[in-house]
Amino acid sequence: MQELLKLRRYIKPYTLGAIITMLLMVIMVALQLTMPGLIGRIVDEGIAPGNMTVVWQTTLIMLGISVLNLIVAVGNTILSVRVSEGFARDLRKDLFNKIQSLSFGNLDHLQTGQLIVRLTSDITSVQHSVRMILNLSVRALMLLGGSLILMFTSNSQLAVKLLPFMLLILLTIVLAMGKLQKMFTAVQKKLDKLNNVLQENLSGVRVVKAFVRALFENERFEEANQNYTEQNIAAMRLMAVLLPIMIILMNLGTVTILWFGGMEVINGVMSIGEIMAFLNYIMTALFPMIMLAMIIGMLAASQASAKRISEVLESEPEIQDKADAITLKESKGRVVFEDVCFSYDGAKCEEPVLNHVNLTAEPGQTVAILGATGSGKTSLINLIPRFYDVSAGRITLDGIDLRDMTKDSLLAQIGIALQETVLFSGTVRDNIRYGRMSATKEEVVAAAKAAQAHDFIMTLPKGYDSHVEQRGANLSGGQKQRIAIARALLVKPRVLIFDDSTSAVDVDTEAQIQDALEHAMKDTTSFIVAQRISTVLTADKIIVLDNGKIAAEGTHTELIKSSPIYQEIYESQLGNGLVSAAEAAGD
What we know:
α2 runs antiparallel to α3, α3 packs antiparallel against α5 and α8 runs antiparallel to α9. The protein has 3 domains: 2-313, ABC transporter type 1, transmembrane domain (ABC transporter transmembrane region fold), CATH 1.20.1560.10; 333-413 and 495-509 and 523-555, P-loop containing nucleotide triphosphate hydrolases (Rossmann fold), CATH 3.40.50; 422-492, Rossmann fold, CATH 3.40.50. It is of the alpha/beta class. It has a 6-stranded mixed β-sheet, sandwiched between helices. The chain has a 4-stranded antiparallel β-sheet with strand order 2-1-4-5, covered by helices on one side. The chain has a two-stranded antiparallel sheet with strand order 7-8. It has helices at 2-6, 15-47, 52-101, 104-109, 112-154, 156-203, 205-210, 214-266, 272-313, 377-383, 407-411, 428-432, 441-450, 454-458, 477-490, 507-520, 556-562, 564-574, 578-586, and strands at 335-342, 354-361, 366-371, 392-397, 400-401, 414-417, 426-427, 467-468, 495-499, 525-529, 541-546, 549-554.
């Protein structure tokens, strides 16, 4: 229960409802505990002496108690549902907000499938436990305690004979709880794996079909599915064994009481009504134990789920604002890398992705970044908006270390079109103004025109109000990229980052985008990561990365003469001897 107790703060807003729920449960238990005594009265004072008046009166009383118990039970259920649903809603909200606050480094370690499970299955499991605690668990404990008190009041000698069986049942529950918690933790891990495989296949279904790998993916899913099933079966098998063990112990206790109680009835120490009432107290006491056995699996699963939820809630973003971080109100856009090293594992340049990078981008400059796959291009531009922090060195914006300013004020100066284009379900207009919802229609259209997206948007059924399906499934790759570029332009950034964001656009459209950007963003510092060398020919500065280091820096004219790597890239894409001609012209 320790992990569940960590989440008790989410019950506080519903304390009154929870208290009323438990008070109603007290009333229900009290009403239920009156039944055995009334049954004994019917036998001893009604049936034995043949007094039907007592039988009818007691029967009507029992009927009235049952109706009252039903009304109280309905109120208890309604309130417990409201409390548990509110608890789950607040917990889900905070967990989602926490995920949103985590840094890229945190999310690299938390897979999407795991987070989905924690936001859905795990929270549902904990929610059910809250309801059980408010209903079944409280009821079971109160029935058990009340029955024991009445048994000892009725006949303490018989009650003592029952105690060993009850202690054995409680010991069985405790041992099973510890074992089941471990087993359900393993179940949740198997579910994580299953969801990861599912998420990968749904997001990459086109790749799976293109490479005819459906059979392989089916086998991979089947393996994860089978592992999850087997782990579930193992947990359920233990629960299936637990219930019969408890029933056997309960029956042994009942037989023991019948034997000794029957002897006392024969000897005239107890009446038949008293022994019947005592047996009803036994059933009332042992039934909650069976109830606990039935819900113990869910409690164990929720304990495992609560631990996984707490892990996320207690996670601290790797990148946080300093206590004295400044708010950057307006930027000129001068970006400087000063001896920057970066490694994803946080090591201080032991195995760096970027190694001693020095780079200056003046306000209004366009800086292009070229390099082979794995050379560190995306890693470099991810450091500018502080998606990650440098491992050594520093990056400044207008002379201020990025770590000395608030993240929000930094990002307010930056527009980004990432390598992987992500659009959200909604309208085209809402996707373009995603970073600035207050933008006017005219500003949206202007950004779309600069990104060469206006013409194709106007061919859509409802223009800018046309619906975009999840992840932009109803748009082509080039159309999605142009909308993403328009989205970046609309925030009117001082620093603009394009991470290979025109790879799905044809060369002519790309040239038109570049021309439009020269006019629309002439005072903006731009970083362009590109695979096509034609994209960067007119850049003010071209950076050539090789194994995380700057291998060359300069304009196209300078690099075509001095950089073998740049010459190789140029020759491979726009070759036919042009490099040799350029070198000869330079001589």
